[in-house]
Design brief:
It is a single chain. By secondary structure, this protein is of the alpha+beta class. The chain has helices spanning 2-9, 25-29, 43-48, 58-63, 66-75, 95-108, 161-168, 189-192, 229-238, 258-270, 290-297, 310-321, 377-392, and strands spanning 15-17, 38-39, 50-52, 80-83, 87-90, 112-114, 119-125, 128-134, 137-140, 144-146, 173-179, 183-185, 197-207, 210-221, 225-227, 246-251, 323-325, 327-330, 338-343, 361-363, 371-372. Strand 7 and strand 8 form a beta hairpin. Helix 1 runs parallel beside helix 13 (377-392) and helix 10 crosses helix 12. 42% of the residues are buried. The mean pLDDT is 96.
Amino acid sequence: MMAAISAAINGHKVVLLEKNEKLGKKLYITGKGRCNITNNSDVEELLKNVMKNPKFLYSAFYTFDSSSVMHFFEEEGLLLKTERGNRVFPKSDKSSDVIRTLQKAMEKRGVQVRLHTEVKEILCDNGICTGVKTDKGNMKADSVIIATGGISYPSTGSTGDGYRFAQKTEHTIVPTSPSLVPFQTKEEYVKSMQGLSLKNVVLKITKGKKRLYEEMGEMLFTHFGISGPLVLSASSVLSGMDLQGLTTTIDLKPALSKEQLDERIIRDFQNCQNSYFKNSLQKLLPAKMIPVVVALSGIPENKKVNEITHDQRMQLVSLLKAFPLTITGLRGYNEAIITRGGVSVKDVNPATMESKKIKGLYFAGEVLDLDAKTGGYNLQIAWSTGYLAGISVE
């Protein structure tokens, strides 16, 4: 939609082909239906949060940065707000308002939208793009922009069409994997904490002596493992990696050093000296977590608090500062927010988004081998590359 709008602004006659019965199905579910439009940061900060091929995005981000995106939507009548972590959302918290704004912007600029129209292949002649073949016949075009997304949430129509089009026109496809996706974990105790959300904790993942990921934020226990913003961001680091030999821990009390945490526990214990250990952690931990921590601590649950030794207490401190988990796998494309991999950026001109192999063929968005952390960065990639492709078509 953004590519269509910017091409139309540039004076071109634009037709948008959509195989679904409506526009923006993927956009509709982003940000849990709230649509995290972008991240209100400067270009350097945006680039820092791109996991794969950030240098390729210099032209796109500098041409249409997050303030340009915000300005565009506000000019088109959508009220925005910036939340924690500079995440930008529509003021209404409705992704449907974002889609409606884009639809109106296209209407205003004369973009024709054809729904229920499936593109089958890109038509080329002697290295020049001449149009597309659809399920309703061939269409001639001077330029074609492929903006089909990846293969995550295939129910929204993201079924890898763009990769097939690119492959048929001899572009290289970097192997794909799900990214921004929850983790499966080995431990049975995770299931007993299903639905528990933790805030202001630090998730740390290491392999041997190498620290792969360490961030503070929110996470969630599920019936299969862990999810939430911290986990999704970590998955962008682990996507496509061998997960054997990883050490994963959660610091449940990152604001306190081990000594400070020990002092805190001593104070709590003093307030309930005659209680059993299993009843002494209410002020320290969420209720669902207490039985798990008690079991892992090695301290008998019915031991009186005033009988707990210094060594046992230090075991508890160590557990709270490094709660253990074992990652066994990443969930699949059905739960992945984005797809890692795609059309190789080596085949695409970063200044225009035009293919280096086929004149008049352009790529935009997630179909390219680009991905970023959670927080509005992936949609920013979509807006920037779509806008740049749209203004570059001749």
